[in-house]
Each structure stands twice: as structure tokens, then as C-alpha cells.
Amino acid sequence: MMLDDEQMHKELTVGEVAGRSGLAVSAIHFYESKGLIASRRNPGNQRRYGRDVLRRVAIIKVAQRLGIPLAEVGVALATLPQSRTPTAKDWARLSAKWKLELDARIEKMLQLRDQLNECIGCGCLSIENCKLRNPMDTLAEQGAGPRLLDPE
């Protein structure tokens, strides 16, 4: 199949994708190996990417900054049509779930922070009512003395 000049112009080499996205070529190859982005091979067996891959890479990088596992990013990207640049509407749909997860993690971290403030300075982390390491003083049931808190 012959490609016209317009189609050839729209495609990017792996080096161009890397340069425009600020990533290493190896990262682009890694994302492709995980099925997060796709390329085609030209007659010279070189990878060529549609311009839509730049937006997909941007989505991947934002999701990674949010702590979203790549497997979950892949599931989300699989809901998008191939060879079409993700739109703002697509992003709103993809990010809605991630926002809820991020809010839940933030809430957990705030609770942890507040619990840490309650025992700061105690030094032992096993005092009665320690919410971080000894909630409800469960270690007291084992008697006096040191205990291995994290057996793993």
C-alpha cells in the first residue's frame, strides 16, 4: 500500500516522538511493548507513529505522576479508538476514575499525617493508643516487653 505525502508527513519516527515528548527512545519502546502505544513498520522496517501517540504519551506521563499503575493506564487507553488523538472529552472520562482514586489516597495520607502528629516524640511507637503501630493497644495482650511489629 502506497502512502501519499500527507500521510507520510503526519507520521513520526521514534526519535521524533521521543524528542517531542521529552522521553528516551527506550521509554517509547517500553510503552509500545506494554501495548500502551502502537506503531506501524514502513517498507524499511522502521517504526512510524501517528501524531495521536504524542497525546497518548502525555496521558501516560500524567497518569504515572498520579501513581496510576501502567496496567491500569493500558486498560483506560484501550477504551480509546486507535489512530485518533484523544480529546478533552476522552481525558475527562479517563481521569474521572483516577481523580476519585487520588482523592482516596490523599484522604488516607492526611489521616496518616494526623496520626503521626499525635505520637510524635514518643520514640517507641508501641505506647498505649498508638494509632500508627499499635491501634487499640493490641500489643498489650502479648505482655510486657519488646515485640516484633512487622514480622515481614
TrEMBL record:
InterPro entries: DNA-bd_dom_put_sf, MerR-type_HTH_dom, MerR_fam, Redox-sen_tscrpt-act_SoxR, Tscrpt_reg_MerR_DNA-bd. Residues 11-79 form the HTH merR-type domain. Keywords: 2Fe-2S, DNA-binding, Iron, Iron-sulfur, Metal-binding, Transcription, Transcription regulation. This is Redox-sensitive transcriptional activator SoxR. The lineage of its organism: Bacteria, Pseudomonadati, Pseudomonadota, Betaproteobacteria, Burkholderiales. The gene is soxR.
